[in-house]
Amino acid sequence: MNSMQNIWSKRFLHYIGEVQKYMRFVFTGHIAIVLVFVVGAGGYQYSEWLKVAPNDFPAEWLVASIVGIILAFSAPTTLIREPDQVYLLPLETKMSMYFKKALNWTFISQVLLSMVAYIVAIPLLNTVTKLPVSQIWIGLFVIMLLKYLNVQIEFNYRYSNRGQLIWIDRIARMVMSILIIHSILTSGLVLGVILLVIVTTYHVFLIKRVADEPVPYEHFVKLEQNRMMRFYRFANYFTDVPHLRGSIRRRAWLDFVYAWIPFKKEKTQHYLVFRTFVRTDDYFYLWVRLTVISAVIVAFVDIPVVTWIVVGALSFATTLQLKYALLSSGEFRMDMLYPVPFKQRGYAVETLLRFFMVIQAIIVTICGMTQPLFLFVPLIVLVVSELTLRLTKGASEKSL
Length: 400
What we know:
With about 400 residues, this protein is mainly α. It is built from 16 helices and no strands. The chain has helices spanning about 1-25, 30-50, 60-70, 85, 95-130, 135-160, 165-185, 190-210, 215-235, 255-260, 270-280, 280-300, 305-325, 345-365, 375-390, 395-400.
């Protein structure tokens, strides 16, 4: 038993170190400032809306649905590696202690999100419902219990079914969690208890089912690899992750972009850079995500100063990250074999960024047309982007 605990402890420390190594690049100064303004503006908007919230607003269903969806996604963090299929096979009878510690960490790391979502909704429940304070806090305890059951059930379901049709299990748990939370918030305690007993019975059934099953190493290895890959892709938006390779997609619906580039030798890099940006998931989705975030904030936050700061910060982040990414590629490319001036790639990257930042400015402006002083938004996007292009240098430019 102690050997399995030691294995888990060592892997956990390595995992925490890996996460910290990249997260320090994510929560930098400008991101922290943006988060402070976003949270502050969101809190202010929320408090102002509560003053005019209608009494018949379905707060119970809204809270139950949001928290229930969060509870249903309870994938276990096992830290299982590919060599474990061979090296841990002789210790399979002792893996229960390893998985116990893994599930404890999974619960601790995931329960906070559902608790925060519920706590944020407490002012809404106090405003539009007549629930006693004790019943609201009972709801928080039930959410913690449901999260524990969801983590255990998803692990045992994956264990017994090798992850097949996990979406059916998740939908079932999502519906049950929503109904239980809604019952607790609407004084239907008897129905809530009955549903909770049903979920617990399902949990006990799965425990008995996996008792004699072999450990599905292949499934847990794949699950862990996908989880870490999602983290690396997220970190790659803020810093370079050496062993990460982005996937490529055709995106034929954006072929019209290439038609605007003249068929000339001087425009060789323009065509290659535009094609690289459009077809590479990491670059394209980075621009899409930051554009969507900027548009949503402008659409729902009616405090001009806050929207200007956030839009400016996101414009800076979009331009800077894409410029470094498109200029810092150290891999061999076929265009290196042709007599094309090296600086032509830098000009091509600037052209691409100006083009797509104009599109970002248009999208954000359309989303913010109902807000005061919205015409300043596109001006801020374009000015910040242009200043970022002119005052920063890409990795390849520094080596000249």
